[in-house]
UniProtKB/TrEMBL annotation:
Residues 74-111, 262-294, 310-347 are annotated as: Disordered. This is Uncharacterized protein. Residues 95-111 have a biased composition (Polar residues). Residues 74-91 have a biased composition (Low complexity). Residues 535-656 form the PAZ domain. InterPro entries: ArgoL2, PAZ_dom, PAZ_dom_sf, Piwi, RNaseH-like_sf, RNaseH_sf, Tnp_ISXO2-like. It comes from the Eukaryota. It holds the Pfam family DDE_Tnp_IS1595. Residues 828-1131 form the Piwi domain. Signal peptide: none annotated. GO terms for molecular function: RNA binding. Belongs to the argonaute family.
Length: 1182
């Protein structure tokens, strides 16, 4: 028998229902509670609202009102020790209607006194439909981001246009969660529940929400909820009865009950017991329907965004709520979870929540390729399992002259701690120059009156050994634990770097890793650039490559500040004491800059006499300035930024041993590269010499903890050399397909490019820094004449002769020239740059790619002049870039041949690449996030999307791509328009991620990519995604040792390693895809974070190796796959765009000691980099 119960639209009492139906009052109450849960479950199981092109509105409302008989008030006597009202302890603990009366004299005296308690928040989602509007309400404890975002995420489809007010919780709906978020001011938007209004306009759709709609929802609230909506009877309990006034039939069922949004995440999923649902006669002694015991909800507490359920037997939850944290107190008549059903932890879309886990290695490793053995710069280590290390926090502060205290800098911290440790009878300890002090003994009894703080930080020492135990499955390299031993290894290497006088300092790197063979120590020689210790005038002359002693133009001053000077420390010693300053800007010359003359008497300077900087130095220091016409520099000290000092440039010196963090010029890069190129044999010898000199096994620090290093030789590991792909071109004879074979990572371009196009009109422009000579004009003309002939051999044809022009290197003139050529319908403009700087190159790219939309190709005059008699070889690489920008295909690689499964070969693959490029001094300018995606069936043409990411002022940006949802959505749409379908397999190569950011990248970027797919694919099958991290910045190197010839050489192109030195359980591998031209080859580490496609080790390694041959810029295998390389190139060249953006120059410099570990995603702002529509989807970046 099925029971039926009519719930009228208007509220009636349970007594009336009991009399009408003929059952007891308790039965009516129990059925009413049960039906509310059924309606709530119906809401939870309802399909999501919205969709692409659909509009929903969201808002939150706080219910307030009078409350009688102290319900929801604090009584006068219920206060905490501080006399402050406490919302949790001060609630009147009434649990039944009988307790609402004035039962005691105290209650009578306190009636209507005390602080009124707020009623709950109601969050609502509204969508217009053909029949009116669909409205959903949710009872929430607060309206913060952690509470509201999961509700929106569960009930609204990503991609929906969401209108809301400007409440901060909705800030990142568009950038992080993929909604088209629009805001409107509160006065126009109104409150869905609280504000009475004639009508509310639905944006874009043009429909209205009338007062009649809200009367339906709002009128019962006033009669039903006002007397019952106390803290012990949540408003949420009454929504189903009000919102669903239809006939509800309750058959025999087992259903899943509602999820309550109380702490930012879904609480639990619990099941109702089976029941017949019969409506029997009135009987007070029987359970007529669901019993109160079965349908009473267990008391629960919100803990850090989750709920811990208290068991029926009174046992306490496993996690104790924070002091002062709000608890959720549901109604006594709610539904409880059966004891046998454990709470299920729900996943929240809030970042950093471990939504996804790292994938494990699917097999024991690959087997394809020819096997080889070689050395790697890892050394096996042995660590005692009983090792216990205690970690302490140390704060070292230094007192300023004014009595204030400031944090000590790195060198000062080390000196202070070194002296204290040497002077005191400390147990065995070591220090990391920061906040961490390590010891194998307890230091809690050591207390000294130094101005330092020692605080015990970590006693959970088992985690340290867990990382080094291969039997433990530790997925992420624990930085704190590894830092313990790495810091110990560095105790004797504080001052081993020596500057060679040319601005390059040499040293060595060491780090510990958990590998398949156990714990290893990785050692490599490194270098970094330093500034010369030289006079500021000499430094600027060298930097600008010109004589500045007669003055610096104002424009050059601003460029110097922006590019180099704001990050440099300067020193002065003209007073007899060395003082350190930062530079703020330039002032007037020493002759022109004046200030009031100081008079050493009590009367002061009554005449107002002034003196110049030149006169002051002559009178004060008996020093005649050599360059009085040079501008002064305005200096300041970080401790007192408000006080400025104007000093002559010639008395300032660049501080010694100062690391160069600004980008190098082209000439500097060439000199540094030449200096730092190290042949494999030389690198091998240097590393072994470091190991021998270091004498790890004689180190007193390592002996104290029982750690040993096998330092006799490097580890010998097995590897494999993968077979290269076949590359298809078109024959010069009959236009048939021909194959070029790859040998040692390179191949020859002896035939035509695979797909080309004809160019109807083009131009060649010579741009010179000075008036070009006749010889230079002749060389440019000769090049323009031979250019069509040579590249015609590769299949690119020109219908007309070039338009030849010659212009000075002035941005406005170049702009006018491009506008003129654009009007003449030129498709391509070839620029020959003669002695011009990078600024002119950036101007050309900005004008062509962003302002006018015309394809530009730049080449260097000196290279043309040098290769004028052998232009065929020179133009071979240039023609490949040229064809790619025009939309052609150079060489074709069958990527599916890398796959062994037949089902995968028939799939439609799309390849993504992504990178975030920071400037060397990344606080001066925004980071550039770039995503590229293949757009054709051959996976050779890639379109790009870029955004600027602005961190808060003075902070370093994060590596996360904030706007990945929109960027990937655009690229998927472009793929669909080009191929007629969306891909069903996506392979994503992510460059530039540190291992400590893996989880953050997974939680944010993989989720954003899935949201984009969900918004486009709708109810169709979702594509399977594989997500890899490409890591170039590591220090593992491989060496091939030939015993017969006693020589050491590089490994071959295609060398792959997935044993011995890789992670014991995670899916990673090393691949050296390119042939090193000079120096030591640098393998790339790939880490598969997420794999729905289900690649084997052989498949993903072979596919990655094939993609390293797909780069259109050359006929060589590059070090990383083409998608990742393109993303890097596009992000790098995007710095040349928005050429006149004033925001970049307005960002101030920064202090070295700022710590940016607490920056959040919400603090980063983004700006889309727009290109001209005709350039947007081309390979403009190659």
């Amino acid at each position: 028998m099925k029971g039926k119960l009519d719930i009228p639209e208007k509220d009636i009492s349970s007594k009336t229902i009991s009399w009408t139906v003929g059952c007891s009052g308790s039965t009516v109450v129990d059925w009413s509670n049960f039906l509310r849960e059924v309606c709530t479950e119906k809401l939870n199981m309802a399909p999501q609202m919205g969709g692409i092109g659909e509009v929903v509105q969201i808002d939150e409302s706080l219910f307030r009102g009078k409350r009688k008989y102290n319900r929801g008030r604090l009584l006068l006597g219920n206060q905490n020790n501080n006399g402050n009202n406490n919302a949790t302890n001060g609630l009147v603990p009434y649990a039944s209607s009988s307790e609402d009366s004035d039962g005691t004299q105290q209650q009578t005296n306190n009636r209507n006194y005390g602080r009124r308690m707020d009623r709950p928040w109601i969050f609502d989602i509204v969508q217009p439909t053909e029949d009116g509007h669909e409205v959903r309400f949710f009872h929430v404890q607060c309206r913060d981001r952690q509470t509201l975002i999961p509700v929106i995420w569960k009930h609204v489809v990503p991609g929906t246009t969401v209108w809301s007010d400007e409440w901060a919780a909705y800030k990142n709906l568009q950038t992080q969660y993929g909604y088209d978020h629009q805001t409107i001011i509160e006065a126009i938007f109104g409150r869905f529940l609280c504000i009475q209004t004639e009508n509310i306009l639905m944006p874009k759709s043009g429909s209205f929400i009338t007062i009649k709609t809200w009367t339906f929802c709002d009128a019962p609230f006033k009669t039903i909820i006002a007397p019952l909506g106390t803290a012990s009877n949540p408003l949420f309990e009454h929504f189903p009865r009000t919102m669903v006034p239809s006939l509800v039939s309750v058959p025999e069922m087992e259903t899943t009950f509602s999820r309550q949004y109380t702490g930012g995440e879904d609480t639990m999923m619990s099941q109702a017991p089976r029941g017949r649902g019969r409506l029997l006669g009135r009987s007070s002694g029987q359970n007529n329907g669901p019993s109160n015991q079965l349908y009473r909800r267990a008391q629960s507490a919100a803990v850090g965004g989750k709920k811990i359920i208290q068991e029926e037997n009174g046992t306490q939850p496993s996690i104790i709520p924070k002091i002062g944290e709000k608890r959720y107190s549901p109604s006594r008549s709610s539904v409880t979870r059966p004891k046998s059903c454990r709470p299920i932890e729900a996943r929240s879309p809030v970042p950093d929540s471990k939504i996804y886990t790292l994938v494990l290695r699917p097999d024991s490793g690959g087997s394809a390729g020819r096997k080889v053995d070689f050395h790697t710069n890892h050394f096996k280590c042995a660590i005692p399992k009983e090792l216990i290390v205690k970690q302490y926090d140390v704060d070292v502060v230094i007192q300023n002259r004014d009595g204030t205290w400031r944090p000590a800098k790195k060198d000062d911290r080390f000196l202070v701690m070194k002296k204290i440790i040497e002077r005191e009878k400390f147990p065995f300890v070591w220090y990391d120059d920061g906040k961490n002090l390590y010891s194998t003994e307890d230091l809690s009894g050591f207390q000294k009156q130094y101005e330092m703080k020692v605080k015990h930080k970590n006693t959970d020492n088992e985690k340290i050994w867990d990382f080094f135990d291969p039997t433990k499955n530790i997925s992420i390299r624990p930085r704190d634990s590894v830092r313990v031993l790495e810091t110990l290894l560095k105790q004797h290497t504080r001052s081993t770097m020596v500057c060679d006088g040319r601005g390059i300092g040499y040293g060595f790197y060491q780090a510990m890793f958990l590998t398949k063979v156990g714990v290893t120590l990785n050692i490599n020689n490194t270098f970094t650039c330093f500034y010369h210790s030289m006079n500021l005038v000499d430094f600027l002359c060298d930097y600008l490559q010109t004589d500045i002693t007669r003055g610096i133009p104002e424009r050059e001053q601003q460029l110097l500040l922006k590019k180099v000077l704001k990050s440099i420390w300067l020193e002065t010693n003209h007073t007899g004491q060395v003082r350190k300053y930062r530079i703020r800007g330039f002032g007037l010359s020493s002759n022109r800059h004046t200030f009031p003359k100081q008079v050493e008497n009590d009367q002061g300077n009554e005449d107002g006499d002034r003196t110049s900087v030149t006169e002051y130095f002559r009178e004060k220091y008996d020093r005649k300035l050599r360059y009085p016409d040079l501008p002064t520099v305005e200096l300041y000290t970080p401790g007192n930024k408000s006080l400025s000092h104007h000093l002559p440039m010639e008395v300032c010196t660049i501080q010694e041993w100062q690391r160069s963090i600004k980008p190098l010029t082209a000439d500097q890069r060439a000199r540094v590269t030449k200096k730092t190129v190290v042949k494999p044999e030389q690198r091998y010898d240097t590393i072994m010499r470091v190991v021998y000199d270091r004498k790890f096994n004689d180190d007193t620090y390592l002996k104290q903890i029982g750690m040993t290093v096998e330092d006799k030789d490097m580890i010998i590991i097995p590897g494999r050399i993968l077979p290269p792909p076949e590359i298809w071109y078109k024959s010069n004879r009959d236009n048939s397909d021909v194959i070029e074979r790859v040998s040692i990572g390179k191949w020859n371009l002896r035939n035509r490019l695979h797909t080309t196009r004809e160019i109807k009109k083009w131009a060649c422009v010579l741009v010179s820094s000075r008036e070009p000579s006749n010889r230079e004009i002749d060389v440019a003309s000769q090049f323009a004449a031979r250019f069509p002939e040579i590249i015609g051999r590769f299949g690119i044809y020109f219908s007309s002769a070039p338009i030849q022009k010659s212009d000075p290197a002035v941005p406005n003139i170049i702009l006018r020239r491009l506008e003129e050529l654009k009007q003449e319908k030129c498709e391509v403009v070839l620029f020959i740059l003669n002695g011009v700087g990078e600024d002119i190159y950036k101007c050309i790219k900005y004008f062509g790619n962003q302002k006018l939309g015309i394809i530009t190709q730049c080449t260097d005059y000196s290279a043309i002049q040098k290769n004028i008699m052998k232009l065929d070889m020179y133009l071979q690489n240039l023609v490949q870039k040229f064809n790619a920008k025009l939309g052609g295909v150079n060489g074709l690689i069958s990527l599916t041949r890398a796959l062994t499964s037949a089902s995968k070969k028939d799939d439609v693959f799309m390849f993504f690449g992504a990178d975030v490029t920071h400037t060397t001094c990344s606080r001066d300018r925004p980071s550039i996030a770039c995503v590229v995606g293949s757009r054709d069936s051959t996976s050779t043409q890639y379109a790009s999307r870029m955004t600027e990411q602005y961190p808060p002022k003075g902070r370093i940006s994060l590596e996360i791509i904030m706007d990945l949802f929109n960027m990937s959505t655009d690229l998927l749409k472009l793929f669909a328009s080009s191929n007629g379908c969306l891909p069903n397999k996506i392979v994503f190569y992510r460059d530039g991620v540190d291992d400590g950011s893996y989880q953050k990248v997974m939680d944010n970027e993989i989720r954003a990519l899935k949201n984009a797919c969900k918004a486009l694919y709708l109810d169709n099958p979702q594509p399977k995604i594989t997500f890899l991290v490409v890591k170039k910045r590591h220090n593992t190197r491989f060496f091939v040792y030939d015993q017969h010839q006693n020589t050491t050489s590089n490994v071959q192109a295609g060398t792959v390693v997935d044993t011995h030195i890789v992670h014991p359980s995670l899916f990673d591998f090393y691949l050296n895809s390119h042939a090193a031209i000079m120096g030591t080859s640098h393998p790339v580490l790939y880490h598969v974070l997420y794999d729905e496609i289900g690649f084997t080790s052989d498949e993903i390694q072979q596919l990655t190796y094939y993609l390293c041959h797909a780069d259109v810029r050359c006929t060589k295998a590059v070090s990383i796959p083409a998608p990742a390389h393109y993303a890097h190139l596009a992000a790098y060249h995007s710095r040349d765009l928005d050429y006149q953006d004033d925001r970049r120059s307005s960002i101030n410099g920064y202090d070295d000691d700022i710590i940016d570990s607490n920056i959040t995603l919400e603090e980063v702002q983004t700006k889309v980099i727009q290109l001209d529509p005709s350039i947007q989807d081309t390979m403009w970046y190659v």
